[in-house]
Amino acid sequence: MENNHQKIIFSGAQPTGSLTLGNYIGAIQNWKALEKDYQCLYSIVDLHSLTVRQDPKEFQKTCLSFLVQYLACGLDPEKNILFFQSHVPQHTELSWILNCYTYLGELNRMTQFKEKSQKNKDNINSGLYSYPVLQAADILLYQTNIVPVGEDQKQHLELCRDIALRFNQAHGDTFAIPEHRIPKVGARIMSLQEPDKKMSKSDDNVNGTIFLMDTEDIILKKMKRAVTDSENKVLYSDEQPGIKNLITIYSTVGNISIEEVVKKYDGKGYGAFKKELAEVIIEGLRPFKEKYQDYMNNMDFVETVYKRGAERATEIAERTMKEVRSKVGLLTK
User: Catalytic residue among 7, 32, 201, 291, which?
Assistant: First the structure.
């Protein structure tokens, strides 16, 4: 039985190749700090990924790799519940019920559907349209109190809250109403090519994103190509967004203050700064790479992690579903 007295944090991520340096700095490092005070559930939301056609064998490898990356980043499977969304069937069961409490007008207003439809004009499926309802089910299933996501997911969380409130008004208190939390420390790691946009694993320009699985040569090349400006001064200024972003990365990965970074490179040009930053990132990711390989060589342990995670998640999810089924009038088996 999980601890019912702790507040619950849920976060889901699609298994898309590799986590980014932005994920690592802006999310996962914060997750590790949360595990002492909260019951944390981190789901690899593989069902969400099916809105895009996947090669089955490659997709299975990607999902496993993604879980191993979580472990290599330091998420403790004893202190956190790590699991695949598809291993907990209550997600899809609750999603259908919540679909019946979601209005077409609400889904029509979802900006992500419009954006993704433009990118996937040959496959605009109903799953892409109802994606936010499954996302709401992911969150509400665990009586989630806090969802640590970026601004780009805020609209989906607001819909989730509206659905929960509507259900509660119809049937009495059933779901906790989740709050949106944006991580404060290192939350905004920006693209290396477009420093006004957040670093993203779905960026069309791969040179804008450093992936945790990138080789040393690739990291060095991406850093050399990182957008700066004509000032050639290492200053932490809003007037120099490109170099400001690189200083933030250096400070966080190198574990030194912004002021120390600026002082260290006073009077030096961008070339030396970017080369040394690449080395700082490579060294900073070395422990991750070593742990990743160790876990990949121990698949029996990895399988134990996700099976146990699914069992723990299912236990919580079923408590919610029993109440939901009863309140909407479904007969028990």
Answer: 201
